[in-house]
């Protein structure tokens, strides 16, 4: 069964992450890490009149009137459906319990018709697996629960109402649809099963409630123990505990109130999202919940990029969430390659994820981020913890220099698309060496080491100015020695042959790439290699804005001729330019781009990766943690520069 590319809403607790469609279907559920494994192939809840044959309707798959919203200041989601065929209004409430591996789903079902209904409720579920192991399901009579299990993943679906019927395998979805289950077999080597409840006769204007608990554990005995505990605690207590948890969480965050309801809602949603995207057990930060499991349109998103982390942790620090930043950097130290660099992307558990190759800006960005984190917390013990990683990273970077150009050797660019020696990557490495020198100085390391790293940074900057500046135009080049066509001959006559690895393999590459790219702003923001007003920096920014502005929908493209996922303007790119304008003193221009980004938000306050180039509507990845981080950073800087300006109040 294929899954939608859009996650409309997310719920979670840091070790469990659920993705919910706009009609309330739980389409993805991750545990015990927020990226892996994903357990649900299909999970549907049906309602029917037990006196009317074949009257079942699925909550999330009908032509109903839907509305969806979070309870304010929480990650508790409510989805409401008005089911005309049964004259029911159903409110589905979803949340994950903060300190237990439990997802709670509550249904409040009101009869809004003129006649009574003998109400039946059924749930059918089919598990998926990341391996070819046999999916197994049983009904536990002691727990009154359906249990899916395989290897070290056990999860139960249990309710606060007594189960009337159950079924293992044999097309349980059809059985729920028909309103009758066959529980002759209580265990089977089948990945699916179903439960059915009889909620009795419901008079017009009256309602019934039923709560489902999806409970996860590593083995059967601990699952039984947790299930009994959760059933004894009950819905009301779990709901109140969860609501109080999110209220307490936000109380520790930095408050930013602009007076614009939409902006303030996006800010609060960003804070709440940051907690869901940070793994409770490891500290790694997820780029986004997965949207393309089968690699049909992209290379997948449910990974941790340390590139993103440098931006995201800056936002976490500004929002008062320094403890989450610190956990991320502690994770980064643990996963660093023994050679000293960081890989392109990682699984949340720290293992290397599928990658295209080394992306050297990630290593520079981590060093830069570590120093920036220290500037917020002023805790020398943090620097002492990361120092071994800093030392190894610098030792690697010292040897990762092209003897011909003086730049960092060819690696993938920020967008993971081109090998080459890039302006953004070079700026990141310069900033990394400068940050490392500052860390060394703070820790009282030898002056020789400090001077050496600062000298390397200065020499790389000189190499940047020799090789990555178009002196005739007074702008930065995106790259030199770059592979513009990954699969064949380069698209220009000006090419060179370079050695690409220690075994002596060579590759034809383009001598230079002069396309405008939003990442060129990285030399000023965030890395500070040049002031925004530096002539080359200013000229580059002006050309970036001129060539990358989307005339029809507004916003900024990543780079010229970007065709990824339809080739749309990006929220990250637009807010990046806004941040540059703030630093350059162009506050009104920054506000314009910020306002555009606000309009890209979904009704629930999530920011996408992209907005449609024709209509400006959110599209592709929703939500993108990096987009939310940039929103927080720009909002904070605008707040310090007189506010966000006039917007239509949300």
UniProtKB/TrEMBL annotation:
Coiled coil region boundaries: none
BP-aspect Gene Ontology terms: carbohydrate metabolic process
Span of domain GH15-like: 266-633
GO molecular function, one term: hydrolase activity, hydrolyzing O-glycosyl compounds
Pfam families: Glyco_hydro_15 (PF00723)
Protein name: Glycoside hydrolase
Keyword Hydrolase found: yes
InterPro entries, sorted: 6-hairpin_glycosidase_sf, 6hp_glycosidase-like_sf, GH15-like
Gene source species: Thermoclostridium stercorarium subsp. thermolacticum DSM 2910
Keywords: Hydrolase
Superkingdom, natural source: Bacteria
